[in-house]
């Protein structure tokens, strides 16, 4: 699977785009909690709030190259803790004439068809779960289908 997989960038950064928050949401829905929150997820854009990024290796180099934008998440990156997808993505703002190997690889990773397909697949799983919840209000579905 593309998401929840460790990716090694040419710059030496090893990172994972994690769906742990989505899996926690599904687990809570199975326990009868956070059901309205699941219903509010209507597009792949909404999924970004549930993704995080974990840098497994190369955080020091990434921090030195992204020093102008890194302050808010620096300690989490150094500790190997998850940071929000949106916060991590914000590290790669730049002028088009700048060289940015980290940003180039990040954008290739997250702007490709494979990533979009994964996001569409995740959204489909959540929509299916939401429909099943409404069809059988007294029985919570097995929402683990499709999670690797």
List the helices and strands and how they pair.
Elements: E1 6-8, E2 14-18, H1 20-30, H2 35-39, H3 44-47, E3 52-57, H4 59-65, H5 74-79, E4 83-84, H6 85-89, H7 101-111, H8 113-135
Antiparallel strand pairs: 1-2, 2-3, 3-4
Account of the protein in words:
The chain is of the alpha+beta class and 148 residues long. Helix content is 49%, strand content 11%. The protein has 8 helices and 4 strands. A 4-stranded antiparallel beta sheet has the order 1-2-3-4. β1 and β2 form a beta hairpin. The longest helix has 23 residues. The N and C termini lie close together (7 Å). The model has no long low-confidence stretch (mean pLDDT 87).
Short description:
The chain has 148 residues and is α+β, with helices and mostly antiparallel strands. Helix content is 49%, strand content 11%. It contains eight helices and four strands.
Question: What attributes does this structure have?
Answer:
alpha+beta
């Amino acid at each position: 699977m593309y998401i929840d997989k460790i990716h090694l960038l040419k710059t030496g950064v090893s990172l994972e785009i994690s769906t742990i928050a989505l899996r926690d949401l599904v687990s809570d829905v199975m326990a009868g909690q956070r059901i309205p929150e699941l219903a509010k997820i209507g597009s792949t854009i909404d999924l970004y709030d549930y993704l995080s990024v974990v840098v497994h290796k190369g955080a020091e180099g990434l921090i030195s190259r992204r020093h102008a934008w890194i302050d808010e998440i620096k300690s989490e990156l150094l500790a190997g803790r998850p940071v929000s997808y949106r916060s991590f993505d914000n590290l790669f703002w730049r002028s088009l004439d700048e060289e940015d190997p980290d940003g180039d690889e990040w954008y290739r990773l997250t702007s490709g068809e494979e990533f979009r397909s994964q996001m569409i697949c995740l959204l489909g799983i959540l929509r299916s779960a939401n429909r099943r919840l409404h069809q059988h209000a007294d029985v919570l579905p097995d929402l683990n289908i499709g999670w690797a």
